[in-house]
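Minutes, project check-in
Item: structure for the 253-residue chain
Input as provided by the requester:
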Amino acid sequence: MLNAGRMKEGLREHARGLADAASGPDPSTRVPTCPEWTLPDLVGHVGQAHRWATHLVRTGGTDVLNDLPRTLPDSPADWPGWLRDGAEELIAAYDAKPDATVDHPLLGTWPTVRWLRRMTNETVVHHADAAGAAGTPFAVAPDLAGDAIDEFLGLLTAVTAAAYKPELAELRGNGETLCLRPAEPSLPGWLITRTPEGPVWEHGSQDADMTATGPVQDLLLVFARRLAPADAAELKVTGDASLLDHWLARTAV
């Protein structure tokens, strides 16, 4: 996991990038990677998520699984400031309680830094959504992309995950392996093994039944279902590609 300072940088950078991308097009523009949403839905979701996480950090917990209205300022010109304020409120809440914990009915007890991490990675992926809708470039630093994959795999393989998302139970298997091999030598790669009890993962870049090799940004966007493998020009899939298709079909979030 990255240190808190790097997470704060990433949260600020991608909240700003999301705001810049989303505030340019017509507000009725639909978000292709979130088909039921328009740009106001996307911006409202992210801004309210920041404020919800801020409340969790300040109060130490919640009994509510999902309480995210998508209200936001009416004018797109006000969205950047609103998103920036939400990110800064979360950072300030974390800075006030860096060693505290938060209780959540599904995720359990987390240190406050993990909520900073959750919102940083949420913002990174939704920045990609906004950029795709607006037709503007998207880029994420390799360390941020790598940490987002770490967290994503950790959430999907948590023992409570299938209770929240039943499709994840179909990721149980009999030892089938999937490897994500980043092109960046600074990153270790990820090896997923489908066991009868559920999938588990570890860092590693060895050959597997299915190996996806390419820039870590592409690996993140493919595994977050923001980019189809066939549309990732620099991504190479070897081995049993049906294992990748099976995984992606059951991990929509």
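Outcome recorded: Strands lie at 101-104, 108-111, 176-182, 190-195, 198-203, 210-214, 236-239.
No further action items on this chain.
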